């Protein structure tokens, strides 16, 4: 099955977004999302695009690895850039990452990065 992309181009505000994505969806885009209460993505993701996101009032979680059978362990390496994210209560990133950029993040309650190193992970760059 070819790699697919999921996008919600007009969604700007949401209370909760929780997605368990099949392995063939590698790219996830929410280009207009500015505020969300809780957001969580689990899947074999290589690209997570949230260019307009400024505020997550509760939990923000991204994982391209799982201890469960679905989705399977990541085959891809994630590069996460959240250029406008200013505040969140809890942040958790898990999986096979090459870079993580949060240049505008000023307010956070709990910060947790869990890295599971796979053979493709050669470096980790964290900008905060």
Instruction: Estimate the global geometry from the Cα principal axes.
Output: globular
Oligomeric state: single chain
Low-confidence stretches: 115-128
Overall tally of domains: 1
Distance between the termini: 37 Å
Describe this structure in words.
This protein is mainly β and 128 residues long. It has one domain. 0% of the residues lie in helices and 52% in strands. The protein contains no helices and 11 strands. The chain has strands at 4-7, 13-20, 25-29, 35-42, 47-49, 55-63, 78-81, 87-95, 97-101, 107-115, 125-127. It has a 6-stranded parallel sheet with strand order 1-3-5-7-9-11, with no helix packed on it. It has a 5-stranded parallel sheet with strand order 2-4-6-8-10, with no helix packed on it. The chain is globular and about 40 Å long. Mean pLDDT is 80; it is low at 115-128.
Sum up the structure in keywords.
mainly beta, 6-stranded parallel beta sheet, 0% helix
């Amino acid at each position: 099955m070819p790699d697919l992309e999921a996008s919600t181009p007009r969604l700007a505000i949401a209370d909760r977004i929780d997605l368990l994505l099949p392995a063939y969806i590698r790219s996830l885009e929410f280009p207009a999302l500015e505020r969300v209460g809780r957001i969580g993505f689990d899947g074999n993701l290589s690209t997570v695009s949230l260019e307009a996101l400024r505020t997550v009032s509760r939990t923000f979680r991204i994982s391209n690895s799982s201890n469960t059978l679905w989705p399977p362990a990541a085959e891809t390496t994630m590069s996460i850039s959240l250029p406008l994210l200013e505040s969140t209560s809890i942040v958790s990133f898990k999986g096979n990452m090459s870079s993580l950029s949060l240049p505008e993040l000023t307010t956070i309650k709990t910060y947790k990065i869990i890295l599971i190193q796979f053979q493709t992970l050669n470096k980790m760059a964290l900008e905060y």
